[in-house]
Write a structure and sequence with these properties.
This protein is an alpha+beta fold. It folds into two domains: about 30-300, Transposase Inhibitor Protein From Tn5, Chain A, domain 1, CATH 3.90.350.10; about 335-420, no CATH class. It is about 35% helix and about 20% strand. Helix 11 (about 350-365) crosses helix 13 and helix 12 (about 380-390) crosses helix 13 (about 405-420). The chain is globular and about 80 Å long.
């Protein structure tokens, strides 16, 4: 999937025999989504050792074409009669460099029929939102070697139970507030933020999102303590009445005409004693874009998961688990072009593929020092340099860094070259 940038089994297999093999793999009862999801983190455990890790999690929906007589076992997503599945994913990102260190965990599922009981009256274990706390708690084992872990989530993760359960020694939580909660002193959270002293203004680069291009924004910061109160409809047994947190608010001072101004209220279990610490919270939250990039790579701008014609929901769930693992590797490859992630080449490529990359390197290097691969052999950065050269990049440090399209072209060419190299010792009759 990484080399061919697709989940289409016909293209991945190359022939009917291999396509059937892939289909049988997905149909095999011994191949479970749980085991495939566990595979996301096999390399992550070592990669996070000694680092401050941002464990970023989010949910995305994958929509598939269905017809009244061919629902494929898929439940409803979005509004209307759209069918698909949901994937909840957590990735580990280095807090200092922004490098994606690998997958951590999550879940993939499809919804059943319509629920008759209102959301507010369901128990926590009967809500999809339980996955936020469950994924964070399970991740503590995988991330136990990290120096510190900060779970980073968007507004869907603003759940009081998480604030109670998730923060612990070495583990913090950072969530964009979604609800105007009650706070101590019989006040409301959003009103409390307005009472904090106004700090400095700083220009921040905002990543592109659906329908909105990347842009710069001048954000003004305020911060202070916030004591959340237990929701009135939550059973009191075993749940503390209050939780002590820090609140950081940033607002856009001069948004472009026709653009909704930025206003983020960020709740965190981290202490925020000064303005520098408040801006650090904002910087960590900005790294959420990595998981947004992962979801785009999984779907339209990469592996095109939603084009899959796999006929059954159970197999689509397994295919999605594999595709997420591949999308993580693609993100690591794109990031490695900067040469600052420090990841080894075997995070993405097999031993045989690394040998092919090394064999190609001399032919792609020029005569001058500026045209040599500047990265340490065996690193993902060195491998990415070769892939970029195959994709048409000129290799000069002064040139624009190779983008995803260039790397995609290089990956496609590399897949063919590596396949041909594997055939070099085949005896012909």
């Amino acid at each position: 999937m990484v080399s061919h940038q697709t989940v289409c089994m016909r293209r991945l297999g190359g022939d009917r025999h291999r396509e059937v093999q892939f289909g049988r793999f997905l149909a095999n009862e011994r191949v479970t989504k749980e085991a495939l999801i566990e595979g996301w983190s096999l390399r992550t455990r070592d990669a996070v050792a000694g680092r401050h890790v941002l464990a970023i999690q989010d949910t995305t929906e994958a929509k598939f074409a269905t017809a009244p007589g061919r629902r494929r076992g898929l439940g409803k997503v979005k509004k209307g009669n759209t069918r698909g599945l949901l994937a909840h994913t957590m990735i580990a990102v280095d807090a200092a460099s922004g490098a994606c260190l690998g997958g951590v965990g999550g879940d993939i599922w499809t919804r059943g029929g319509n629920r008759r009981k209102p959301h507010s009256k369901r128990s926590q274990k009967d809500k999809e939102s339980r996955r936020w706390a469950e994924t964070a708690q399970a991740a503590k084992t995988t991330l136990s070697t990290a120096a510190m872990v900060t779970f980073v989530e968007d507004r869907e993760g603003d759940i009081y139970q998480q604030w109670v359960e998730v923060p612990s020694q070495g583990f913090h939580l950072l969530v964009r507030a979604a609800q105007n909660r009650r706070v101590a002193g019989d006040r409301m959270l959003f009103d409390v933020a307005k009472q904090f002293p106004t700090g400095a203004t700083r220009r921040v680069e905002l990543a592109a999102k659906a329908g909105v291009p990347a842009r710069s924004a001048d954000l003004t910061i305020r911060f202070g303590p916030a004591t959340l109160c237990r929701p009135k409809n939550m059973p009191a047994r075993g749940v503390p009445a209050t939780v002590e947190l820090s609140l950081v608010e940033v607002t856009e001072t001069n948004p472009p005409r026709g653009v909704e101004p930025v206003r983020w209220l960020l709740l965190t279990s981290h202490p925020v004693p000064d303005e520098a610490a408040a801006w650090q919270i904002v910087d960590w939250y900005l790294l959420r874009w990595v998981i947004e990039q992962l979801h785009r790579t999984l779907k339209r701008q990469g592996l095109q998961l939603e084009d899959s014609q796999v006929a059954e929901a159970e197999r689509l769930i397994k295919l999605t688990a594999i595709a997420i693992h591949a999308a993580i590797k693609v993100i690591q490859l794109v990031q490695a072009r900067e040469g600052n992630t420090g990841l080894p080449a075997d995070f993405v490529f097999s031993e045989d593929e690394i040998a092919t990359l090394e064999a190609l390197r001399p032919a792609l290097e020029g005569a001058t020092a500026l045209q040599k691969n500047p990265h340490t052999p065996g690193t993902l950065a060195a491998a990415t340099w070769v892939i970029a050269r195959l994709g048409g990049w000129d290799g000069y440090p002064s040139s624009r860094k190779p983008g995803p399209i260039t790397l995609l072209r290089g990956l496609n060419d590399f897949a063919s070259i590596h396949f041909g190299r594997r055939l070099r010792d085949v005896c012909m009759p």
